[in-house]
Design brief:
Blueprint (H helix, E strand, L loop, with lengths): L7 H14 L1 E4 L5 H16 L2 H7 L18 H7 L2 H11 L3 E11 L6 E4 L14 E7 L9 E4 L25 E3 L6 E6 L4 E4 L11 E10 L11 H10 L24
Antiparallel strand pairs: 1-7, 2-9, 3-8, 4-7, 4-9, 5-6, 5-8
């Protein structure tokens, strides 16, 4: 059943709650077969050095050529970023059309370092902050409070600020924060990309060999051109079109015209 197959009042309430707080928890969104396939692909992505090569293509004085494999070329990852129940929720919150921005995939083990307070909102060429960008944070193996906790500052997306404006605070507790440390496998937290959030480490916990499988995908409202974060973004969108991801239901999902040229962040 579609997550938005409910009466219009409930849809409006969900949209209003997301607008106010900046996040929405979709518990157990992903079916078991999909999440198991994604986990195997994440192991391949990390252990075979594909993630490292993807990062290397985005750093250095000059952009390198696209890496040999993109996350979305891994079959389960491509299925995840166009998972119909997810995109129906995104459509319900943003309206249509919207465009895919980028995809990241990683595996975190016990003792993984935290990530300071930040947000992930990218500018658009009209400077219109009324156009929204969202991140789908997929906790493929769930959260159990042992390998870092997702920490959110509800409502912080309403105040414009730089991505790293609070980075000097590290992952220190903030008034009004919410800690997400318990989610079943296959859960997704959908956030407004301008929402301040952090990964707070949990030292001294976690069984040896345990891991948190994590994938995030982002999507933007159309209406202006967004700044890409990967120098090979055209190749990425072209490969998604070549692979027929999305099945044609969201025709703008991989359209190049919604992006500016790539420029390294200052």
């Amino acid at each position: 059943m579609s997550l938005f197959s409910v009466d219009s009042g409930a849809v409006a309430a969900r949209r209003e709650q997301f607008s106010r707080s900046g996040f929405l928890v979709l518990s157990g969104l992903l079916p078991t077969p999909l999440r198991e396939r994604v986990m195997r692909e994440v192991d391949h992505w990390v252990d075979d050095g594909l993630r490292a090569r993807s990062i290397a293509a985005c750093v250095g004085p000059e952009p390198a050529q696209a890496p040999p494999v993109l996350e979305l070329e891994l079959p389960a990852h491509g299925e995840l970023l166009t998972h119909q129940p997810l995109l129906e929720v995104v459509e319900g919150l943003l309206g249509a059309p919207f465009v895919f921005h980028h995809l990241h995939s990683d595996r975190h083990g016990p003792g993984t370092a935290g990530k300071p307070w930040h947000h992930d909102y990218e500018p658009n060429d009209s400077g219109d902050r009324g156009l929204h960008m969202v991140h789908a944070l997929h906790y493929i193996s769930g959260l159990d409070g042992t390998v870092g906790n997702l920490t959110l500052l509800p409502g912080s997306h309403h105040e414009p600020r730089g991505k790293s404006a609070l980075a000097h605070l590290g992952t220190a507790r903030q008034p009004g924060e919410i800690v997400v440390d318990s989610l079943p496998p296959g859960s997704t937290v959908l956030i407004n990309s301008a929402l301040l959030h952090a990964r707070r480490p949990v030292p001294g916990t976690g069984e040896p060999g345990s891991a948190r499988y994590f994938v995030d995908a982002s999507y933007c409202q159309t209406g202006a051109r967004w700044r890409p974060v990967k120098p090979y973004w055209r190749h990425m969108l072209a490969r998604a079109r070549d692979l027929g991801l999305g099945g044609g239901r969201w025709p703008e999902l991989f359209a190049e015209r919604h992006f500016t040229e790539y420029a390294r962040s200052a």
